[in-house]
Amino acid sequence: MKILAIGGTGFIGPFVIRDLQHAGHSVTVLHRGTTAAPAGVAEIIGDRNRLVEYREVLAREKFDLVIDFVLSSKRQAEQLMQTLRGITGRVVVLSSMDTYRAWGVFNGLEPGGLEPLPVTEDSAVRTAPAYPPEVIKKLQQMVSWVNAEYDKVPVERIVLGDSALPGTILRLPMIYGPGDYVHRFHPFLKRMDDGRRFILFADDVAALRTPRGYVENVAAGIALATSPGAMGRIYNIGEAEAFSELAWARKIGAIVNWPGEWIVLPHDKAPPHLHWPGNTAQHLVVSTERVREELGYREPVTSDDAMRRTITWERENPSKEVGTPFNYEAEDAALANLNAIA
């Protein structure tokens, strides 16, 4: 197939493009030109926010399929479908598991009780905003394509509701691996590399289960979803098991042979910087059975190899985040208070 990738030069895109090329597809990348495109692709330099201006160019190229890596708002989705309708066969859109109502409950923005688990593609979606405004602003600082109108729920409705242009929606988890702009391993790995003898958790955070996916494995799922059988479908892509935060940290510690001790404190005894905002009673356990059953998805990189590659990259590219999350003085004091009570 001849495939257009809108975006595709960031964290996930190069791995997806590599897999598509290995499968024999021809790939063109439409991007702003601020980041080098992967090797072996054709390029269209342009702004996805003015996509309609490139309709004539895209029509001449006759792409069989378009993957949009950077679609984040209703306005962008409307422009995408308007521009591509009649000139391509299908669109694949990267969405997020934050479309589910469970995320709204976790973030304290969704009314009502806890959402049943596991979350499946048929579970309820949010009726409230995805995140508080301050979280959107922080995301914008990390990722250039996120705008103030960020909300994947209307994006999905517009894409799947277009009768003239078939779509596929891929809901992605928290993604880790080389290039992770969130540096998800950083809070644990820095403490280990700093020689801390213990790592503390608030009990509710320690137990919290969330969905994850290694970047190369998620990319393999995205590439797989370009197959005709995925047309009109929604798929969760991520690891089969949702580990608790403590179990996840233990896996990192085991790989780096950290000799320290894990200590779980009652919520009210843990330093405030170790608390998580939101309703931690709402776990975020998501089923990925559909993509495994319908498309035969399997992770090409093992869990241990994925974690080793991420650790190596993290140590070579450490986060610049310092300060409150690493308030060792407060952590030492909390442990001393616990020992005094004992």
Which sheet architecture does the biggest sheet show?
Answer: 7 strands, parallel
Structural class comes to alpha/beta
Low-confidence stretches: none
Helix-strand topology string: EHEEHEHEHHHEEHEHEHEHEHHH
Q: What is the number of helices?
A: 13
Shape category: globular
What does the average pLDDT come to?
94
How many strands appear in the DSSP assignment?
Answer: 11
Strand order, sheet with most strands: 3-2-1-4-5-6-10
The portion of residues forming beta strands comes to 5-15%
N-to-C terminal Cα separation, in Å?
66 Å
Give a written overview of the molecule.
This protein has 342 residues and is α/β, with parallel strands linked by helices. The protein contains 13 helices and eleven strands. It has helices at 13-22, 55-61, 74-84, 101-106, 133-142, 152-160, 186-193, 203-207, 215-224, 245-255, 289-295, 303-316, 328-341, and strands at 2-6, 26-31, 42-45, 65-68, 90-96, 167-172, 174-176, 198-202, 212-214, 234-236, 261-265. The strands form three sheets. Strands 3-2-1-4-5-6-10 form a seven-stranded parallel beta sheet, with helices on both faces. A two-stranded parallel sheet has the order 7-9. Strands 8-11 form a two-stranded parallel sheet. Helix 1 (13-22) crosses helix 9 (215-224) and helix 3 runs parallel beside helix 6 (152-160). The radius of gyration is 21 Å and the shape is globular. The chain starts with a strand and ends with a helix. The mean pLDDT is 94.
